[in-house]
C-alpha cells in the first residue's frame, strides 16, 4: 500500500501538530530532505532518521495543474499548491505574497468558491509593531504606538499552511514499536512538508527557517519542527459540516509573538484575503509586548504549564505568577 497523506480515512496513527488550536505543481518524487541540504543552507539540526532497516516509499504527492478545478479531483486528495496565486503566475512586484499550502482538494474548492476571493490583504494604514529581543525569549513582537482594543495591528499571508495533524500508514512492519511508528510518521511528514516548502521563494524560505524550533530533539525534521513550534490555527479552512481537519499556519510575523495566558491579541484567519489579521484584545500601550495564546488559557495553571512543555519554556505571565488566578478562571 502506498504511503502518504492521500486518504486520511486510512490514517492509522496521528499525532498532534503541536500548534495552538489544533496546524506548484508537480512534485519531484526524487527530492529528499537530506541533512546536508538544511544544515548547509540554514544551519539547523536534521531529524533523527528512520527506524533501522526501514525504507520510505516514494512520495505520493503529484504535481497537478494548478488551474484544474479541484472539484474534479478525488475527494480529500491532498494537494500541494500556492494560494491565492499559483507560482506559475507570479504576483507583480509589491503585491501580496502567496502562501505555500498542503491541503485537501475539498478545502481548495471551498477556498476558490469563497465570495470575493482573492481580495488584497487589508493592511492597517501604518506599521505599529516591531520584532525585537524579548525578556527570557529570543525574540518577540512589540507595539510601537498606542493601540486600541479591537484594532487590527497587522495583517499578513502565511508562509505555509498544512494540516495540523500528521497521518500514518496502514502497513508499518508489525515489529515496529510505537516510537518507531512515530518516527516514521515524523519523517514522512517532513518529506511532504518539504514539497510545499520548496514552493516558497528564497526570501520566505529564509524567514521560515529563522523561526524558533522547540522540536530539535524529538525526531521532527526542521520544517515540521518549526511548524509545530510556530503554527497558528487556521480554523475557517475546515469545511463546514465535515469532520474537523485542523489546519496550521506559519507566519513570518504573527508566529514571532510569544505566549501569554493573559494575551493582548488574537489572530483570525480571513478567507477572502487568505490572510491572518492580528487584533488587539484590549488597549495596548506603546512599547508593550504583543502576546498570543499557544494553548487553551482557560485551563488551570498546572495544565497550562504541561501543555506548554513542547514549546520548551515555562510561562511566567501574570496569571501563572498569581496563585489565586485558577479560582477566577
Ligand atoms: Zn501563563
UniProtKB/TrEMBL annotation:
Xref: Gene3D superfamilies: SET domain (2.170.270.10)
Residue span, SET domain: 124-295
PROSITE patterns: SET (PS50280)
Region: Disordered, residue numbers: 1-37
UniProt feature, compositional bias: Polar residues: 1-10
CDD domains referenced in this protein's UniProt entry, alphabetically: SET_SMYD
Pfam family, one: SET
InterPro entries registered for this protein in UniProt: SET_dom (IPR001214), SET_dom_sf (IPR046341), SET_domain_protein (IPR053185)
SMART domains: SET
Protein name as annotated: SET domain-containing protein
Amino acid at each position: 500500500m502506498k504511503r502518504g497523506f492521500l486518504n486520511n480515512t486510512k490514517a492509522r496513527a496521528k499525532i498532534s501538530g503541536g500548534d495552538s488550536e489544533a496546524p506548484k505543481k508537480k512534485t519531484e518524487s526524487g527530492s529528499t530532505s537530506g541533512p546536508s541540504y538544511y544544515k548547509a543552507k540554514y544551519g539547523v539540526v536534521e531529524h533523527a532518521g528512520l527506524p533501522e532497516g526501514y525504507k520510505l516509499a516514494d512520495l505520493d504527492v503529484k504535481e497537478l495543474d494548478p488551474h484544474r478545478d479541484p472539484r474534479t479531483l478525488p475527494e480529500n486528495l491532498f494537494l500541494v499548491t500556492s494560494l491565492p496565486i499559483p507560482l506559475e503566475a507570479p504576483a507583480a512586484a509589491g503585491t501580496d505574497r502567496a502562501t505555500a499550502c498542503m491541503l485537501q482538494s475539498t478545502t481548495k474548492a471551498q477556498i476558490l468558491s469563497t465570495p470575493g476571493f482573492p481580495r488584497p490583504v487589508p493592511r492597517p494604514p501604518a506599521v505599529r509593531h516591531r520584532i525585537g529581543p524579548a525578556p527570557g525569549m529570543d525574540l518577540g513582537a512589540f507595539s510601537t504606538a498606542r493601540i486600541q482594543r479591537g484594532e487590527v495591528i497587522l495583517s499578513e499571508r502565511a508562509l505555509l499552511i498544512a494540516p495540523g495533524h500528521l497521518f500514518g500508514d496502514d502497513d508499518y512492519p508489525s515489529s515496529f514499536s510505537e516510537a518507531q511508528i512515530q518516527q516514521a510518521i515524523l519523517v514522512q511528514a517532513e518529506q511532504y512538508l518539504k514539497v510545499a516548502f520548496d514552493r516558497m521563494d528564497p526570501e520566505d524560505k529564509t524567514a521560515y527557517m529563522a523561526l524558533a524550533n522547540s522540536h530539535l530533539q524529538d525526531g521532527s525534521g526542521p520544517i515540521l519542527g518549526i511548524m509545530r513550534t510556530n503554527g497558528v490555527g487556521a480554523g475557517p479552512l475546515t469545511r463546514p459540516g465535515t469532520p474537523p481537519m485542523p489546519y496550521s499556519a506559519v507566519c513570518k510575523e504573527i508566529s514571532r509573538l510569544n505566549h501569554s495566558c493573559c494575551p493582548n491579541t488574537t489572530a483570525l484567519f480571513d478567507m477572502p484575503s487568505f490572510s491572518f489579521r492580528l487584533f488587539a484584545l484590549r488597549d495596548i500601550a506603546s512599547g508593550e509586548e504583543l502576546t498570543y495564546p499557544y494553548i487553551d488559557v482557560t485551563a488551570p495553571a498546572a495544565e497550562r504549564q504541561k501543555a506548554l512543555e513542547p514549546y520548551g519554556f515555562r510561562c511566567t505571565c501574570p496569571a501563572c505568577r498569581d496563585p489565586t488566578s485558577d479560582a477566577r478562571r
